[in-house]
């Protein structure tokens, strides 16, 4: 697999300055190219606040069969948006939500950009309107070993 990302062996240290930094377009296309080749997975996807105006976003991809890590970054300053990876690679879903929550970098076209940690007043997904009802399950349910509480929002037979 050819990649413009830095390639290292797992558990090997390296200088952070060796990580290539690309435009968001090249960075995104490189991530998706590796996905399409079907040999990598997302190990980490996170931001680093370089200064007040600049957020650097790192993507680390793992190639388990070779014990390689591919590392690349993109800088986001004034334009803090990029086309979401999630519609094509669902593994990016939670990573993109966290990036948006922490740094305000918008993955345009993300299917469900809700907070990961900061839930506001209610930690539950809530729907309102005619025909909406809620099914509460728990604190104990036969289908799980641990105690838990679940709230399912339903519209007719469709469960959200």
What report would you give on this structure?
By secondary structure, the chain is of the alpha+beta class. The protein is built from two helices and ten strands. It has helices spanning 24-36, 93-103, and strands spanning 6-9, 21-22, 41-51, 54-63, 68-76, 81-83, 106-108, 132-137, 150-155, 158-159. Strands 1, 2, 3, 4 and 5 form a five-stranded mixed beta sheet that branches. A three-stranded antiparallel beta sheet has the order 8-9-10, with no helix packed on it. A hairpin with a 2-residue loop joins strand 3 (41-51) and strand 4. The longest helix has 13 residues, at 24-36. It starts with 5 loop residues before the first strand and ends with a strand. The model has no long low-confidence stretch (mean pLDDT 87).
Compact overview of the structure:
The chain is of the alpha+beta class and 160 residues long. It contains two helices and ten strands; from the N terminus they run E-E-H-E-E-E-E-H-E-E-E-E.
How many distinct beta strands?
10
The SS-based structural class is: alpha+beta
Query: Proportion of β residues?
Result: 35-45%
Straight-line distance between termini:
39 Å
Overall residue-averaged pLDDT value: 87
Helix content: 10-25%
By oligomeric state, this entry counts as: single chain
| Low-pLDDT segments, ≥5 res | none
Radius of gyration: 19 Å
What is the approximate shape? globular
* Element order: H for helix, E for strand: EEHEEEEHEEEE
Largest sheet: 5 strands, mixed
User: How many helices in DSSP terms?
Assistant: 2
